[in-house]
Design goal:
125 residues, alpha+beta
């Protein structure tokens, strides 16, 4: 079997995996700014709120309307009174962690492809 028959499909799959993983190095960071200010100034794509009853909720495309925080949850609109919000957090990326993680994956991928080439008899087969 010619090595390109092995390498190309494997390389395509690895590229898809790497693309999905580049956004994986994020975490929630609790903000000290009041929720209304945070949403108005930073306009985050999503926020995680912890309510006074200790429940947590992730709101997508959040906005402030009057005395409420509104957003989308599971395709439906959800409204939460700002007085009920105990804590608000936003997702932040870790660029250094992402670069290191993707670099390690790329190195492991090349090592795997090299092993596959050696096992298949190299490019001269």
């Amino acid at each position: 079997m010619h090595p390109t028959r092995i390498v190309r499909p494997v390389a395509r799959r690895l590229l898809v995996v790497l693309l999905f993983l580049t956004g994986a190095c994020t975490s929630w960071h609790v903000e000290t700014m009041p929720p209304a200010e945070l949403v108005a100034e930073r306009k985050p794509e999503q926020v995680r709120v912890r309510l006074v009853d200790r429940s947590r909720l992730v709101l997508f495309t959040p906005a402030v309307l009057g005395d409420s925080l509104v957003g989308t949850v599971d395709g439906g609109r959800r409204t939460v009174a700002l007085a009920e919000v105990n804590e608000i957090a936003v997702r932040r990326g870790n660029a250094l962690g992402t670069v290191g993680f993707v670099g390690a994956l790329v190195a492991a991928s090349f090592a795997t492809l090299l092993i596959l080439l050696i096992i298949s008899g190299g490019p001269s087969s």
